Amino acid sequence: MKISRLFTVAFLGCAGMLAQDQPSNGDLLKRLENLSTLTKFTKERVVIHGQLVVACRKPDPPNHVELIGTLQAAIEVYVTPEGFASFVEPKTPFPVGTIVLKEKFAAVDAKSPELYTGMLKREKGYNPKCGDWEFFTLTGDREAITARGRINSCMDCHQQYTKSDYVTKRYKNIPPPR
Fold first, then answer.
1. 75 to each of 28, 57, 130, 144, how far by Cα in Å?
2. Disulfide check for 135: which of 10, 66, 126, 154 has CB 3.0–4.6 Å away?
3. What totals of helices (H) and strands (E) does the chain contain, helices first?
4. What DSSP assignment string belongs to 80-100?
5. Could you tell me where the DSSP H helices lie in 69-158?
6. Is residue 46 part of a domain?
7. Residue 56 forms part of a structural domain
8. How many domains does the chain have?
9. pLDDT (tens digit, 9 = 90+) per residue, 115-140?
10. What is the CATH number of the domain that holds 58?
């Protein structure tokens, strides 16, 4: 009986420590409150097409084409300052705590983003299948997190980028649809 209680206390204690490693939704939103605190990686909006628009979205929307309005969209990419060097060097892993944020627009000339998708580099062991990244989506006004965690649709796409720490670093070379 004492051993099982000890085990339960130890397990709950460890679970509590792991939960502390994840920033709250409020803390994550606070870090993203002002885009000027991030480093803009793209010099201008990058047009993305077809399947990439559909694949990189809020998980399980009723109809992504309706959400974005088109099968062609545009993005701008931001990274927290500690992760910028990793974007420049193809094989350099991102440090824990780095956030990569994609601002998604329905068109190149759209005034406001439709939504944001992002990645937060977490501690070793958080998500070994995808480089310990946590994925999330935000509303276009960055007021609310709409999904967060080990999002399968995000992981399915990012697993092709294992050599660059699960992040594509080729934003200027995204090919148009064939």
1. 21, 12, 22, 19
2. 154
3. 6, 7
4. -GGGHHHHHSTTPPPPTT-EE
5. 84-88, 152-158
6. yes
7. yes
8. 1
9. 999 999 999 999 999 999 999 999 99
10. 3.50.70
